[in-house]
Amino acid sequence: MPDITDLPKHKVVTRQEWDQLRANLLQKEKELTKQRDSLAEEIRSLPWLKIEKNYVFQTKTGNKTLIELFENKSQLVVYHFMFSPGGKPCRSCSFWADNFNGPRYHLPQRDVTFKVISKAPLEEIEPYRKRMGWEFDWVSSFNTDFNSDFEVSTVEGEQPGLSVFYRDGDNVYLSYTSRKRGMEFLNPVYGILDLVPKGRDEKGLEWPMAWVKPHDEY
Questions:
Q1: Looking at the domain assignment, is residue 1 inside a domain?
Q2: Among 56, 78, 114, 146, which has the minimal tally of Cβ within 10 Å of its Cβ?
Q3: Mean pLDDT by 10-residue block, N- to C-terminus, for the chain (218 residues)?
Q4: Closest CA to 142 of 71, 78, 64, 56
């Protein structure tokens, strides 16, 4: 058990004082929620970028084009998982991917398909997906320009990302992208850690997620 002295020194108040302070904080939380709703509207109102290339991906059921990844839905959300050919799957992306099994059930009910895409070939992806017990669809962009075109693979290396697409007939459009902390909403673990007394407790680490491991290595 951790020593309680590890926690920051906090003032202890009466229930009446605590209720008032909590009520004040609740108003700020409501304001933040409204700001988030407004931002989401702005995100949805962004102009679109037409996708001109015909990307072909490796999937468990054979090669598929970008349009085919939509699976008859009009909206497609892609998480760009850092996993280069011959390399190792990213620990932090694995941390995020632990949360992806749930959305695959519910998003199709709102006309959305969710895919994870990496540059590693499918024969390298599949053993790791099975090891982690993940059921979401993870496909490969091996031997395509997809990762470089969407700026998740560069000469400096790879980075994670989120891309949102819309399909209108035979036309596909990019409607939104996000990188780094803009994707934190995908990871409820951080949302929970932000509420506990020690928070994320990442100060002093070599890099913020140095504590993260594939879940079967803890």
A1: no
A2: 56
A3: 61 88 92 89 94 95 96 96 95 94 90 96 97 96 94 86 96 94 89 90 91 93
A4: 56
User: pTM of the predicted model, to two decimals?
Assistant: 0.89
Q: Output the CA torsion sign for 38, 40, 44, 50.
A: positive
Q: How far apart are CA 122 and CA 58, in angstroms?
A: 6
Q: How many CB atoms lie within 10 A of CB 13?
A: 11
Alpha helices in the chain (DSSP H): 15-44, 66-69, 91-97, 103-106, 122-132, 146-149, 188-193
- 95 and 28, same domain (yes or no): no
CA atoms within 13 A of residue 32's CA, in its CB half-sphere = 5
Q: 133-153 in b/e burial notation, b at 16+ Cβ within 10 A?
A: ebebbbbbbbebebbeebebb
Q: For residue 92, what are the contacts with CB-CB under 8 A and spacing of at least 6?
A: 82, 160, 209, 212
Specify the pLDDT at position 37. 87
- Same domain (yes/no): 60, 162: yes
What pLDDT does residue 197 have? 86
Asked if residue 163 and residue 146 are part of one domain, the reply reads: yes
Rounded to whole angstroms, the Cα distance separating 134 from 96 reads: 12
Q: Put the strands of the sheet holding 171-178 in their side by side order.
A: 49-50, 171-178, 161-168, 75-80, 112-118, 138-140
